[in-house]
Amino acid sequence: MIRRRPTPWIHKWSRPLIGAIAACGTLNTVYLTFEKLTGGSPVCTNSAGIKGCTDVLSSPWATIFGQPLPLFGALAYISMLVLALIPLALNFEEKDPQRKKWENITWWLLFCGAIAMSVFSAYLMYVLAFQLKAVCFYCISSALFSLTMLILTVIGHEWEDIGQILFSAVIVGMITLIGTLGIYSGVGVNTANISNTTTPQPISFVPSIPPNPDFGWEITTQSGPAEIALAQHIVQIEAKEYVAYWCPHCHEQKLLFGKEAYKIISDHIKVECASDSPNSQTKLCIDAKIQSFPTWIIKGKSYSGVQNLAELAKITGYSGPSNFRYIR
């Protein structure tokens, strides 16, 4: 009599576990996407003198193809969630050949997705540690989620050909790494230029007096040649910045440019959306469907929230001096 070998518990629970982790990753990245689009600051506790989640979210690495990086992370996690739960949702009979087919297909897709996400997360951890020199618990959590899903895809399924798994892992990993380096090819160069010339001074703003409807609050930072050159470039490409005088985030954007450079922005492309301001252009804001402040419209695309100047330089195709004085 042949006794059937019992199914290991990890094989029974691997899919629900992957689904649960993917759901946590989805919540994590959706929250960061919301904060990025609205210009908010993620809830994140950091020690004094150490860059945190807000610095990471406003860095040039936090935008891909003009869209927030966490948005792509959310799509990846949702895909992993769906792939993990498809065979469970279809509820095939245990001996149904369709069950075996769907399980094999989704396991391969889960494995390839986990490899790609882990490689991409590893690169972002390198950026976090050596380029930004920051601590972001959301980013670290996402990297751990990706690595855990990869481990579960390997040990949570009975793979027949280990050699094919290793070969697939190498191919998918190489493609992901090459694509990642291509996407961020210009960002590291610009950041290196900044670090070689000056150390940007962090700025933040908490209002202590009511804003003036004419201009908000006084700009207390001074512009350098790089800020002025970037402001002139942004005006030349006919971008628009939609603001409200009472908005603290809008004032942070002004502080990043400095007094002299922001005057160029204000004189040419700033659009005041507050209806009670003497300079109000509310109709233009309504026509542009502006929902948060500040919002940049650059080359037909919308960018919500405070943008570090290095990020604006990348978005606008600016190639002038990049030793910006301030960073958020």
Number of helical stretches of at least 4 residues: 12
- Report the radius of gyration as a whole number of Å: 24 Å
**Stretches where pLDDT falls below 50 for ≥5 residues?**
189-197
Broad CATH class of the largest domain: Mainly Alpha
Largest sheet: 4 strands, mixed
Q: What is the beta-strand fraction?
A: 5-15%
Structural class call reads alpha/beta
CATH homology superfamily of the largest domain: VKOR domain
Helix content: 55-70%
Number of strands: 8
What's the order of the H and E elements?
A: HHEEHHHHHEHEHHEHEEHE
The second-level CATH architecture of the largest domain is Up-down Bundle
* CATH topology value of the largest domain: de novo design (two linked rop proteins)
Mean pLDDT across the residues is 88
Major sheet: arrangement of strands = 5-4-6-7
End-to-end Cα distance: 71 Å
Mass-distribution shape: elongated
Number of domains: 2
Question: Would you give an account of this structure?
Answer:
The radius of gyration is 24 Å and the shape is elongated. Strand 1 and strand 2 form a beta hairpin. It contains twelve helices and eight strands. The strands form three sheets. A four-stranded mixed sheet has the order 5-4-6-7. The chain has helices at 9-38, 53-57, 69-90, 97-131, 137-155, 162-183, 187-197, 225-236, 248-257, 259-268, 282-287, 309-316, and strands spanning 63-64, 67-68, 201-202, 240-243, 270-272, 295-298, 301-304, 326-327. It is of the alpha/beta class. It is 58% helix and 7% strand. Helix 4 crosses helix 6 (162-183). The protein folds into two domains: 9-185, VKOR domain (de novo design (two linked rop proteins)); 201-327, Glutaredoxin, CATH 3.40.30.
